[in-house]
Amino acid sequence: MFQGRHVGYLEGLRYQGREGMLAWALHRITGLGILFFVGTHVIAAFFMHSIGGDISTAITTTYESTPMQIFVYFCVLYHALNGLRVIVEDFWPPLLRFNRELLWFQWFVFLPVFGLPALLMALSIVSGGK
Amino acid sequence: MRSRYAGQGSSLEYYLWLFTRLSGVFMLFMAAFGIVYANLAGGRTLLDIAAQYRWSFFPIYWHVQNTAVPDVVPNWSNSFWQIFCLLLVFIAAVHGFNGLRGVVEDYVHRPLLLLAAKGLVFVTFLFVLGSAAVIIFELFQ
After folding, report:
1. B58: distance to nearest CA of chain A, Å?
2. Residue B46 and residue B64: Cα distance in Å, rounded?
3. Alpha carbon distance, N-terminus to C-terminus of chain B
4. Are A91 and B1 a contacting pair at CB < 8 A?
5. For the purposes of burial, counting CB atoms within 10 Å of the CB of A77, is it exposed (0-12), middle (13-18) or buried (19 or more)?
6. Residues of A with Cβ-Cβ distance to B16 under 8 angstroms
7. pTM for this one?
8. What is the ipTM of this complex?
9. What's the CA gap between A78 and B38, in Å, rounded?
10. Helices (H), chain A
11. Cα-flanking dihedrals φ and ψ of residue B17, to 5°?
12. N or C: where does chain B have the smaller number of CB atoms within 10 Å of the terminal CB?
């Protein structure tokens, strides 16, 4: 699947352009974001459980901070929505005709569902939260 | 966006391609199950929203302990959730680290470096799985 698709860094960033490229890049970035968050979370919990100590406390404080939670929420929601769109298009290829419409529809769903909680969480920082 | 093609290369690649899609949907259902369960078990009054989300993506009792739950044992702590949790982590780890392998194969071209990078991905995968098993089943305690 992945082999033989050797792309350079710049070419990888450019890809095919327009809406699809943004979705592709964001899917990749948010996927790496989730993997990074979940990976450090599990490993930090493991260290906390087995040895305790300052390192695990520091990691825990970082991912429990509100900006980090907003970032993780962005990653999970975008990756889930975009992944669902890719699955639908993969299993029902005729829908690829409406790829652009689906991409715009996806933003139409994503923005309010992400924006409102993110705004409330951001406001909680302003009003003196974590 | 042009999707990745199915069936290029070996049949293992095809099954991983299929697994990525099916597990993606499956994890969403598991998360939904977690949220519904948390609310049916009194989560609406006992857990804040953050704790409910924490329960959905990692349903283990100490994930809800620092909330208003008076006694976590009856609803939140039993073997069902340990197995559910391990299954969720296993599926998520295969999905995630296979994706990371795809990213690595896109950007690393030199064969030896690619082999080393993929080895590192695999070792990290095993370490995360091992860590998860230790904290879920509270081994070494």
Report:
1. 10
2. 9
3. 49
4. no
5. middle
6. 1
7. 0.84
8. 0.84
9. 24
10. 9-14, 18-50, 54-64, 66-91, 99-126
11. -60, -45
12. C
